[in-house]
Amino acid sequence: MGSNAAALRTSRGGHSGTSNMKIACQAGPPIHTRHTCRIFLAFCTLVCLSVSAGAVNLSQDELAKKSLTPLQLEIEKQRQRLSSSELEERRNALMRLAALRHPDASRAAVSALDDKAAIVRAMASSAVQWLPAEEGAAAVLPLLGDKDEFVRQEAAYALGRTKSRIAIMPLIERLAKDKKDGVRGAAAVALGQLADEAAVVSLAGVLSPQTSLPGRKARKEKNVFVLRAAAVSLGQIGSRAGLPNLVATLEDETTTDDVRREAARALGLIGDPAAEPALRKVLLARDPYLSLAAHEALRRISRQQPVGPGQ
Q1: Among 33, 74, 88, 101, whose CB has the most other CB atoms within 10 angstroms?
Q2: Mean of pLDDT over the chain
Q3: Cα atoms in the 13 Å half-sphere on the side-chain side of 108
Q4: Contact 124, 158 (CB under 8 A)
Q5: Which string of DSSP letters, residue by residue, matches 243-262?
Q6: How does DSSP classify residue 143?
Q7: Residue after which a domain boundary falls, among 101, 131, 161
Q8: Who's near 149: CB < 8 A, 6+ residues apart?
Q9: Contact of 190 with 182, CB cutoff 8 Å
C-alpha cells in the first residue's frame, strides 16, 4: 500500500515537472537571452558586410592592376620600392626606372631627389633624364646646391643631358665658384653639351683667367680635367669668340699636352682660318698626338673653306 502511494506521488510529481517545462518554453526565453541573441545577430551581420566590402575592394584592386600595361606595372613596382628602408633596394629601384627610358618612369624617380642618402640623390639625378627638357632641368637644378660634392657633380652632368637653357647660368655659377674640381669639371662638360654661346666667356676664362667675367676674381685653373673640359666644350659650342683663348692655350708650352691637344681639336671644330698659323707651329711638336691633332684640325678647316672658281 505504501509502495503504491509513493509511486503515485512520483507519477504526479513527474507530470507536474513536465508541465512546468512546457509552460516555461511557451513563455519564451528570458529577456536577457533575447538581448544577447540580437547582439549576436548584429555582430554576424557586420562581419558579413565587412567581408563583402573587403572582397569588393580586393576585386577593384585586382581589376585596376589588370587594367595596367606591363610598363605601368613595372613602374608602380619600382615606385613602391623607393619607399623601402633598405638603401640597396632604393638604389636598385632607380636603376630599373632609368633602364625603362620612359618619362613616366623618370617621374616616379623624382621623389628620390630628396632621399636622405647622398648616393640615392645622385642616382636619381640620372634616372630623371627621360623627362621633357624643362621639366627635368627644373627637378634637378636644386641639387647643384647640395651639400654633397658627388651629388652636385652628378646633377651637373644630368643637367647637360637635359639640353635645357635654364641650366646654363646655374652651371656657369658652379664652374666659377665651386671649390671641388669634380664639380667644376662636370659643369664645364655640361655647358659644352648645352652648346650655348652664353657660356663661351666663362669657359674661355677657365683657359685664360684674364678674360673672366667682370667683377669676378681671376683664378688660374690648375686642374687638368677642368682645363680639358673647358677646351672641349668651346669646340662643341663652335663660337669664334673662344678662338683667342684656345690659340693662347695651344701656343703655351707650359700647358700640359693633354690640354693643348684638346685646344687643337676645338680649333678644328670651330673652323676659323685664323687658327691655322698656331696649328702649323705644333705640327712638329714633341708630342706626336698633339701633332696629329693639329694636322686633323688643319684638314678640317681646309674642308670648310669655300672653293673659288678655277680651284
Answers
A1: 74
A2: 84
A3: 27
A4: no
A5: HHHHHHHHH-TTS-HHHHHH
A6: G
A7: 131
A8: 180, 182, 183
A9: no
Residue with cell 701656343: 251
Q: What is the CATH number of the domain that holds 78?
A: 1.25.10
Closest to 278 (Cα-Cα) out of 229, 243, 231: 243
What CATH number is associated with residue 242?
1.25.10.10
- Residue 285 is assigned to a structural domain of this protein: yes
Q: How far apart are CA 311 and CA 309, in angstroms?
A: 6
The least confident of 63-77, 181-195, 207-221 is: 207-221
Concatenated DSSP letters for 91-137?
A: HHHHHHHHHH--HHHHHHHGGGGG-SSHHHHHHHHHHTTTS-HHHHH
Q: Taking a C-beta distance cutoff of 8 angstroms, is the pair 174, 152 a contact?
A: yes
> What range does the domain containing 102 cover?
69-131
Question: CA torsion 230→232→233→235, rounded to 10°?
Answer: 130
**Has residue 1 got a pLDDT over 70?**
no
Q: Is 297 helix (H, G, I), strand (E, B) or coil?
A: helix
**pTM assigned to the model:** 0.75
CA dihedral sign of residues 234, 236, 238, 243? positive
CA dist 136 to 18, 40, 200, 224, 240, Å? 90, 59, 24, 30, 31
238-257 mean pLDDT: 96
pLDDT tens profile 31-75: 556 666 566 566 656 655 554 545 444 455 554 556 889 999 999
- The residue behind cell 508541465 is 19
Asked if 176 and 207 touch (Cβ cutoff 8 Å), the reply is: no
Q: What phi, psi does 180 have (nearest 5°)?
A: -100, 130
Rounded to 10 deg, the angle between the 118-127 and 87-100 helix axes is: 10
Which grid coordinates are listed for 253? 708650352
